[in-house]
């Protein structure tokens, strides 16, 4: 394949969801799976040319450090403006962003920490203000050295000391099957305006499950808030884990968000090249591991998306990679020129990537060198941007426009 910084997918190359039904994927590779996206292995999993990609010389924002955390992974704002932050080793923190005070939330589930696994995402129930229900994702151990992602929900009880406790935790979803290895969990969480829970379920570096409908790996999952399956899911009549699936053919999904029109966008890591920004369609098949705009880690070619138009193609893709960690569709007023744009945290690229979305088209508009791996991007109540750096002593940064 010919490397390109960014390619745009023509809307005409996309087929209807019915055109891309699951099938038996060929053996995609006998090469070992790529290394995890931890800082220690990032250099192995990234094309060296990524360091030469152009970045913006002028930042339209100032970045202020608010706190530091031990391997932070995700964050969620409470209605009162305080912020919940997960730490990968299995801790949940509550920070008052006005004072910098950090408290502990106990009652976190036991996590299987290692590689890319550990404590993951956190999301508030749409009626959190009245029911105090939160959802957490994490890696859990299974039998015979296997493990998989899980999602639990519980009640957040805050105390007067600036901390609190998770109570009555109940697991409502698990990756099936549990497999060996500690890579590609995904498990980002998001609620839609209809109250449905969306879960990204990566293929655990096992390739074929992304096309296997008896597995929920390599899929976009849509559930009711109690973990049951909505009757209008595209494969609901098939039952079992198949009923959970909204779309398939994904690799390592690490960011999801809705735009102002209610459309769901997703970013995922490609193999050696081919990171993707996708517009998610009901019942869509995005082709992995049959097609990808990247190649296998042993150098063998994977057919590009344009060779198989029956699969949904990405709206934008990167080769060399940016290693996307998270996705935010900006809707605030502090950065008015960015409203409706996608903001992507970059791990190996150590960047904040801005992508302009115009209808069904998307293109990278700017890339800001942050000097550190960016694990998460969030929008604050006032429209400010918040970033979490990856790794030990990962900083929480607040981004506001440059004055004047």
UniProtKB/TrEMBL annotation:
Residue ranges of domain Glucose/Sorbosone dehydrogenase in the record: 69-398
Keyword Signal: yes
Entries under InterPro entries matching the protein: 6-blade_b-propeller_TolB-like, Glc/Sorbosone_DH, Quinoprot_gluc/sorb_DH_b-prop
Keyword terms: Signal
Record Gene3D superfamilies: TolB, C-terminal domain
Superkingdom of source: Bacteria
Signal peptide coordinates: 1-20
Keyword Nucleotide-binding appears in the UniProt entry: no
Protein name as catalogued: PQQ-dependent sugar dehydrogenase
Species whose genome carries this gene: Luteimonas lutimaris
Source lineage: Bacteria, Pseudomonadati, Pseudomonadota, Gammaproteobacteria, Lysobacterales
């Amino acid at each position: 394949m010919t490397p390109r910084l960014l390619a745009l997918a023509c809307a005409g190359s996309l087929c209807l969801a019915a055109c891309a039904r699951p099938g038996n994927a060929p053996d995609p590779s006998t090469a070992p799976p790529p290394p995890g996206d931890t800082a220690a292995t990032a250099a192995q999993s990234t094309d060296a040319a990524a360091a030469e990609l152009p970045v913006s010389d002028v930042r339209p924002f100032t970045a202020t450090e608010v706190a530091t955390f031990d391997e932070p992974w995700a964050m969620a704002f409470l209605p009162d403006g305080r912020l919940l932050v997960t730490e990968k080793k299995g801790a949940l923190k509550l920070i008052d962003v006005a004072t910098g005070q950090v408290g502990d939330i106990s009652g976190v589930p036991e996590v299987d920490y290692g590689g890319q696994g550990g404590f993951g995402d956190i999301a508030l129930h749409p009626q959190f203000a009245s029911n105090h229900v939160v959802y957490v994702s994490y890696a859990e151990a299974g039998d015979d050295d296997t493990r998989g992602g899980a999602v639990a929900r519980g009640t957040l009880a805050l105390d007067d000391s600036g901390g609190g406790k998770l109570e009555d935790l109940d697991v409502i979803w698990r990756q099936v099957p549990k497999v060996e290895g500690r890579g590609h969990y995904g498990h980002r969480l998001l609620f839609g305006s209809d109250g449905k829970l969306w879960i990204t379920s990566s293929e655990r570096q096992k390739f074929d499950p992304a096309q296997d409908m008896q597995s929920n790996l390599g899929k976009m999952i849509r559930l009711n808030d109690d973990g049951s399956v909505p009757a209008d899911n595209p494969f609901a009549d098939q039952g079992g884990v198949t009923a959970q699936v909204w779309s398939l053919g994904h690799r390592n999904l690490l960011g999801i968000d809705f735009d102002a029109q209610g459309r769901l966008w997703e970013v995922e890591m490609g193999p050696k090249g081919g990171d993707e920004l996708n517009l998610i369609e009901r019942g869509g098949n995005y082709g992995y591991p049959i097609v990808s705009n990247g190649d296998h880690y042993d150098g063998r070619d994977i057919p590009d998306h344009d060779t198989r138009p029956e699969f949904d193609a990405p709206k934008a893709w990167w080769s060399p990679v940016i290693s996307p960690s998270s996705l935010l569709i900006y809707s605030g007023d502090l950065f008015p020129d960015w409203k409706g744009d996608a903001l992507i945290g970059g791990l190996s690229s150590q960047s904040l990537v801005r992508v302009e979305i115009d209808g069904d088209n998307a293109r990278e508009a700017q890339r800001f060198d942050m000097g550190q791996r960016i694990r998460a991007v969030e929008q604050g109540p006032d429209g400010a941007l918040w970033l979490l750096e990856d790794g030990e002593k990962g900083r929480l940064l607040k981004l506001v426009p440059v004055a004047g």
